[in-house]
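Running this now, will post back.
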Amino acid sequence: SLLFMGTGSVLYSTGKSKLTELGGLYKTMPRTMIYTVIGGLSISAFPLFSGFVSKSMTVSAFGEEHLMWVFLLLMLASAGTFLHTGLKIPYFIWFGKDQGIKAKEPPWNMELAMIIGSLFCIGLGIFYKPLYSLLPYPVHFEPYTAYHAWETLQILLFTQLGFFLLLNKLWCKDTISLDTDWFPRKLSNVFLWIVNKPLVAIEYKFIGEIYEFVIQKPIMMIASFFKTIDTVIVDGSITAMGKTALAGSRKMRQLQNGQIQHYAMFMVAGVIAIFVIVLFIK
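Update: finished.
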C-alpha cells in the first residue's frame, strides 16, 4: 500500500504515469522518495523491514518441508520483486533523466498516510514479536539469524549488481505499447453474448422443456399419488377409527344407566354365555 501511495503521489503532483516521462524527482519530492524506497525495500524483504519477518517465514517453511522447487521459485520471485519494484521503478522515477518537471510534495493528508505506512514497515520489521503473537500457532521461527540475514543480503545485493550492469538494457524506451486490455474486454463481450443469446435460448426452449416433461411432471404425478394415499387411506383410516370409538362410547354410555338390576342381568347373561361356550368347546 505504501508503494501505491508513493506512486499515486507522483501521479497527483506531476500528472504523469509513464516512467519515460518522469525522472529527477528526488530534487523536488525528497520525502515522497524516502517513503517509496521504504515501501520497495519492505516488499523486497530487506532486513529491518516488515517483509523480511513475514515473507521469509513463508519461504523457510517450504524449505523445511523439502519442497525445493517451490522454495527456489519463491527465492527467484523475491529477486524479481526487488529488481522491478525495489530498483527499477524507484530509479526511473527519482533518479532517471531529469525531465524538468516542477513538482512538489503531496498534500499533508497524503503525506501523513505515507508516514504511517512507513512506520509500520519499519516498526514491524524490528518489533516483530507482537506480529508473531497474533498467529494461531506457536512460532519458533527466528528471522534475524546470521545465516538468514547474509543469505537475503546476497540475493538482494547480487540482484542490485545485475540491475546496474544491465541498466542500459533495462532503460525504459518511449514506445507505443500494445493495449493488452483490449483482449479481455472484447473476449468478455463475446462471452456475454454467448451467455445471453444462444445459451439462454437453449435453456428456455430446450433444456427447460426437457426438464419439465422428464423430471418436473413425473415428480408432481408421484407426489400427487402419495398425497392421495395419505389423504384417503392414512388420514381416512385414522378418522374412521376415531369416529368408531366415539360412536361406541356413546352406545356404552346408554348402557350405563345406574340401575343395579340391569347390571345383574348383564352379569348373569355373561356367565351363561361363558358356560355355553365352555360346553360347546368340550
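Residues 2-174 form one domain. More later if anyone needs it.
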